[in-house]
């Protein structure tokens, strides 16, 4: 089986690539903006006809799109998350119409959840950030493309290699700088929100299962842990693993990608039924792996969505 992974050097894409490597009989083709990419593709600027030519030369059985912008202004977010998805679909229709497309979306597309409730794929989408809105527009482009395509709406990915552009990776970096200094102070934003943290390795496994599953799949599937955890607990867990002896101060505004969303938790029942998938890693395992393996790249903003 021939599988093309876009954004294959990023936080999510690198784990997807590992899963493809381990798949018997599979051949991986890596694409993205990285110099290490076999095919240099930047979805923010790619022309559909040229991308179609690349796709025709690869003749993939499946394409897994892990490329996505999480930071930058509205133009940057729209170019990658919205235009990129639309261009990829147009190129697939011309260059590889039989390939299955697995596109990584975001739970930010749903917007605020109701405390104590799980969000299903049929829930209304009400993103409150430009990031969530551009991801939602990308999902619409994929879902209405007429291709054999599925969007995996991913919760907050965490685990080994988490980049500093997301909270878990940033906190881990701050803890490394602080060491065991009892006078150290970590100054962070509001940590009272609840999020559905899912291990990056579980996300990768879901993506590969979606790429290889027989028959048609639902247009959208939630990929998360199915549990809402206070962000404060994530920070506290990392601090314990790091042996941090200082104090954490909360205050100020949080991430622009997550502001105004106090509760987010996904119902992952449909993914279990369609993909025979369940998360295998708990949050403690994810945090331990994150501490053991820090981010391997200095910038991954356009090579996969870090935890939001």
Automatic annotation (TrEMBL):
Domain of life: Bacteria
InterPro entries hit by this protein: Epimerase_deHydtase, NAD(P)-bd_dom_sf
Pfam family, one: Epimerase
Domain NAD-dependent epimerase/dehydratase: 3-224
Family classification: Belongs to the NAD(P)-dependent epimerase/dehydratase family.
PANTHER family (alphabetical): DTDP-D-GLUCOSE 4,6-DEHYDRATASE-RELATED
The name this protein goes by in its record: NAD-dependent epimerase/dehydratase domain-containing protein
Taxonomic lineage of the native organism: Bacteria, Bacillati, Actinomycetota, Actinomycetes, Kitasatosporales
């Amino acid at each position: 089986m021939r599988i093309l992974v876009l954004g294959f050097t990023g936080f999510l894409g690198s784990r997807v690539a590992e899963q493809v490597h381990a798949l018997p009989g599979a051949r991986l083709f890596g694409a993205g903006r990285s110099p290490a990419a076999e095919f240099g593709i930047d979805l923010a600027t790619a022309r559909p006809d040229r991308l179609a030519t690349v796709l025709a030369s690869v003749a993939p059985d499946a394409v897994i799109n892990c490329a996505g912008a999480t930071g930058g202004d509205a133009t940057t977010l729209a170019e990658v998350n919205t235009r990129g998805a639309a261009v990829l679909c147009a190129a697939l229709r011309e260059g590889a119409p039989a390939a299955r497309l697995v596109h990584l979306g975001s739970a930010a597309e749903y917007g605020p959840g109701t405390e104590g409730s799980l969000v299903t794929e049929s829930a209304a989408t009400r993103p409150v950030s430009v990031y969530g809105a551009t991801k939602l527009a990308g999902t619409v482009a994929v879902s209405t493309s007429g291709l054999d395509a599925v969007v995996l709406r991913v919760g907050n990915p965490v685990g080994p290699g988490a980049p500093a552009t997301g909270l878990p990776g940033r906190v881990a970096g701050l803890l490394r700088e602080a060491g065991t200094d009892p006078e150290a102070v970590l100054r962070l934003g509001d940590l009272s929100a609840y999020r559905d943290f899912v291990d990056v390795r579980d996300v990768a496994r879901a993506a590969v299962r979606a790429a290889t599953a027989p028959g048609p799949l639902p247009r959208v599937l939630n990929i998360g842990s199915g549990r809402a955890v206070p962000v404060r607990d994530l920070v506290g867990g990392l601090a314990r693993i790091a042996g941090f002896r200082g104090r954490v101060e909360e205050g100020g505004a949080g991430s622009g990608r997550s502001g105004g969303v106090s509760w987010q938790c996904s119902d992952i029942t449909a993914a279990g039924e369609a993909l025979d998938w369940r998360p295998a890693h708990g949050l403690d395992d994810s945090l331990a792996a994150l501490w053991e393996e820090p981010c391997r790249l200095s910038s991954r903003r356009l090579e996969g969505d870090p935890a939001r």
